[in-house]
UniProtKB/TrEMBL annotation:
Residues 1-26 form the signal peptide. This is Alpha/beta hydrolase. Residues 392-485 form the Peptidase S33 tripeptidyl aminopeptidase-like C-terminal domain. Pfam families: Abhydrolase_4. Belongs to the peptidase S33 family. The keyword Ubl conjugation does not apply. It comes from Streptomyces purpurascens.
């Protein structure tokens, strides 16, 4: 079951101005406040890495501190430099440092990289910023996130409490301050350390929550902000959150089936894909499907849906079809061998629950309530059996304290410039309705551009989406609110 949380941490569907020329919106930078000691990054000599020492608890600035890990790739055309572009790839749990060092060059256009310093940071509790660490043995012992009765529900709650205390012990005080609101204040401290009067920001998926809340608190410090695959943090109803997520996952499953019906490159082409899928999950329920990567263990149905769900992010439909076909081809008479002893490090990074459970006040109180919620999401997504990501997140908060550091609320943005929101119509994780609701809450501050295709990624889906964001970030060209970009078929070879 721990692969659910690891998958959640890995799923994954992407600055102000220093110029002497006439770039729109240019500003003169201030003298940096706290210093970042930049040095060449190990294994990435063309980039710079550093740390920024910050307080763990903003209410106690003289208390314990941690080092925020930062990476920077300077603008390749410094004479035409616009400023800094802070990036956060989402998660929660994805590394902005890793994105800057290993993914930005491929995922951001050459024009953006030539005109902006690309700056990524690891949010507190993630990567190089005092990561949340937990006992691997305890992570491996996670009970089912689908409790069948009150006894199993209480076992899940007891496990979550034990894991929470274990992670707190191995992580330190940062664990209790891993919420997104604390990350927002860290980003403002980073702006000051960079010496920038205003920043540009590109937040993807869970990174949009960082952007939204930064715009609330520090809107006048923004030059541009582009948010893709948006999260609506105003949802207070647990059922609404689960059902909307499940509906989005099921929609992506149907997009996958339609692609298989028409694409000869689909490993399931010409077959009844829904029947193959449903029977595969039934066999997994009976313990008949082996994990191809670990032949000594079986795969549960929820692990299969989770794996396919991550593939829908791309969307990597050909890979998903090959995976399903491979599992379906297993012979039922071949029984799994006994699992050997597990080896590895005694501690493992696991930031997802520390962030999610401090950002969302979702706490089912007993099995009866949990079962009603599970039934509602399964009704909304009968083939995907709900939303693997959100269900696991909710289950991981069972037994946690009621109080959260960053409770849900409607956005109150008063000083920010025009923000650009982009979202896929068939996003498997974050439904388009979330983006539409966030747009309404900004009261005209944001515009929403919809990509009419599938997948969790948005910016690099087509020339239309890329040009819209590049034009906005570089020249302050704001697309028409309610505009669309046509779907671009995934690379299928057909």
């Amino acid at each position: 079951m721990r692969s659910l949380f690891k998958g959640l941490a890995g799923a994954l569907a992407a600055g102000a101005l220093v110029l002497g020329g006439g770039v729109a919106g240019a500003d003169t930078p201030r003298t940096p406040e706290p210093a970042i000691d930049w040095k060449p990054c190990p294994d990435h000599a063309t980039a710079e890495c550093g740390t920024l020492r910050l307080p763990v608890d903003r209410a106690r600035p003289g208390g314990e501190t941690f080092d925020l890990a930062v990476a920077r790739r300077k603008a390749t055309d410094p004479d035409r430099r616009v400023g800094v572009l802070l990036v956060n790839p989402g998660g929660p749990g994805d590394s902005g440092v890793n994105y800057t060092l290993t993914r930005a060059e491929a995922q951001l256009s050459a024009e953006l990289r030539s005109r902006f310093d690309i700056v990524g940071f690891d949010p507190r509790g993630v990567g190089g910023s005092r990561p949340v660490m937990c006992s691997k043995k305890l992570l491996d012992a996670q009970p089912s996130v689908y409790p069948r009765d009150q006894e199993e529900f209480e076992r899940l709650a007891a496990y979550n409490r034990e894991l929470r205390e274990d992670c707190r012990r191995h992580t330190g005080p940062v664990f209790d301050h891993a919420d997104t609101l604390s990350v927002v204040h860290d980003m403002e401290a980073l702006r000051k350390a960079l010496g920038e009067r205003r920043i540009n920001f590109f937040g993807h998926s869970y990174g949009t929550l960082i952007g939204e809340q930064y715009a609330e608190l520090y809107g006048d410090r923004i030059r541009t902000m582009s948010l893709t695959a948006n999260v609506d943090h105003s949802i207070t109803g647990t059922r609404e959150f689960l059902v909307s997520s499940a509906t989005s996952a099921e929609d992506s499953w149907h997009q996958f089936v339609k692609w298989c019906d028409r694409a000869r490159s689909c490993a399931l082409h010409g077959r009844d894909v829904p029947a193959v899928w449903d029977e595969l999950l039934k066999r997994a329920d009976r313990g008949e499907i082996r994990d191809p990567e670990q032949p000594g263990r079986t795969l549960g149905a929820n692990e299969i849906t989770q794996r396919a769900f991550r593939m829908f992010y791309g969307p990597d439909w050909a890979e998903a079809a090959t995976y399903v076909a491979r599992l379906d081809a297993q012979r039922p008479e071949l029984r799994p061998a006994a699992a050997g002893p597990e080896t590895g490090q005694p501690l493992e990074a696991a930031p997802f629950p520390a962030v999610f459970c401090q950002d969302w006040r979702f706490r089912p109180r007993d099995h009866r309530e949990f079962a009603r919620l599970a039934a509602a999401e399964r009704q909304a997504a009968p083939h995907m059996r709900g939303s693997p990501r959100v269900h696991a997140g909710l289950a991981g908060c069972v037994g946690w304290p009621e109080r959260v550091n960053n409770p849900q609320h409607r956005l109150r943005i008063t000083e920010a410039p025009k923000l650009l929101m982009m979202h896929s119509r068939h996003d498997p994780a974050n439904p388009l309705s979330w983006a539409a609701e966030v747009r309404r809450q900004t009261r005209g501050t944001a515009v929403l551009l919809t990509y009419e295709g599938a997948g969790h990624r948005v910016y690099d889906r087509s020339d239309c989406t890329r040009d819209a964001m590049d034009g906005y970030l570089l020249a302050l060209k704001v697309p028409r609110d309610g505009g669309t970009c046509a779907a671009a078929d995934p690379a299928t070879g057909d």
